[in-house]
Amino acid sequence: MTKGNINVSVENIFPLIKKFLYSDHEIFLRELISNATDATLKLKHLANIGEATVEYGNPKIEVRIDKEGKKLHIIDQGIGMTAEEVEKYINQIAFSGAEEFLDKYKEAGKDAGIIGHFGLGFYSAFMVAEKVELITKSYKEGTEGVIWTCDGSPEFTLEPVDKTERGTEIILHIAEDSTEFLEESKIRELLTKYNKFMPIPIKFGTKEVNDPDHKPETKKDKDGKETTEPQKKTTVDNIINNPNPAWTKLPADLEDKDYKSFYRELYPMQFEEPLFHIHLNVDYPFNLTGILYFPKMTGELNIQKDKIQLYQNQVFVTDNVEGIVPEFLTMLRGVIDSPDIPLNVSRSYLQADGNVKKIASYITRKVADKLKSLFNENREDFEKKWNDIKIVIEYGMLSEDKFFDKADAFALYPTVDGKYYTYQELFDKIKDNQTDKDGKLVILYASNEDAQHSYTEAAQAKGYEVLLLDSPIISHLMQKLESTKENITFARVDADHVDNLINKDDTKISKLTDEQQTELETILKEAIPSEKFMVQLEAMDSDASPFIITQPEFMRRMKEMQATGGGG
Ligand code: ADP
Ligand code: MG
Model pTM? Predict the structure, then answer.
């Protein structure tokens, strides 16, 4: 038996590991299963390149709880380790890796958000275990099994052990304050959260299913009554993951229904179908795969619970993709998988990272391209979806200039009577007859069709187009358009008399006498708050509306912008 000190220079790493990221203790399981997966994939590689003695077979990883013994087992059938390799990889490399990681990040504590998602590795086991045993046998012929134990002090033991099968078993003796990790429901929850799409099957317990070889027979008794014998059951491994999730496949191999069923796999509690998907797939200058879905978005900018999930080689990392995906796209759903996103760094570092920036602009471009092709391929369908997707598009136009430029081709401006124009189409339609006295193009719109109905009617009677713009951020977008497009202005139909908005010259005769007008004006001015509205007694064309009350565009926009949180 060998005894030794892992590293005399740092005696205090274990208490530190225990304390580290106290809210994130659960990641130990992901780390150990990642190691088991790596070890299995390495074996697969060796088998593929024809390394003689290796038989790959159908390896799996098993997680087993021993509640009475207060132990958690993680067992793989991967390459295993020889005694020398344990000495090297566990005692030296893994240990100094963990030490270095802690050194770097212990100060940062839990501020991080993303810090701690990766890096601590094997030694994260000591966040929950008071003692760890590692029993392993290398795939190499003629090697012996070894057992390594460590009780959370820098001392370890290493000795030969009887082990016949290749691979590694990690046994965690769960500490008193971590007994939640002996609960089946807790472990199942963690496996589902972190390992749902890992590439090697993970077994957790067994389950009863119908025996596929048994077809129950139906017999007739002497009275002619039919009875069917009971279906035989059989016990099979309970595999908790899908090792081949849709995003790892080629778009050409997937149909629309595959994307939809993957959506349900990702969000089992989500019953609404997505509107459409975007399959991401790039291998230069960075690696990234994924599928994004546009969910139905009903007007509100609310924070959703089903978010985009970030994976690294099929290992779940986080569902907080802030800083990686442009903000306006965080409203989408789906997965992004990339080995090129540095994960054990702080968010501010992440935002400055060159690769991450490239990834963000790639995703933005793909989303814009997809929207454009949907628009080109089936405009009618696109128009139908507009109400559900406009919030993302308008938000994107406001926050990303590149997206703004691309969106010009497919962003739609609906009218109160149900037509949909692109900006160019709208421009061509109104350029000759909707200008004000300074020659500025006036884009009329209503934000609430019911409330502004009579104004809308008056404008339509003159042959003007009235848009229906009602999303919560539209006033920011109008400002952006006014500053980007030349010589245009938006005016809500009730901002002033429509004749004042479009051109000033024709005057109207009121149906009221001068006296009646003065009287009415005094009453109205008392009743209506002057800081909000302007009372104008101007003649309208219809008998139903003898005068109009207007709210100046600037007053209203100021109020709206305050309500939606300022500039865009
Ligand atoms: P990393 O996985 O980043 O290399 P870890 O601390 O998680 O760091 O693991 C250190 C090393 O220990 C691994 O690189 C691997 O060589 C070895 N190792 C850990 N777990 C296993 C395992 N289940 N089977 C084989 N080797 C393992
Ligand atoms: Mg690891």
Answer: 0.81
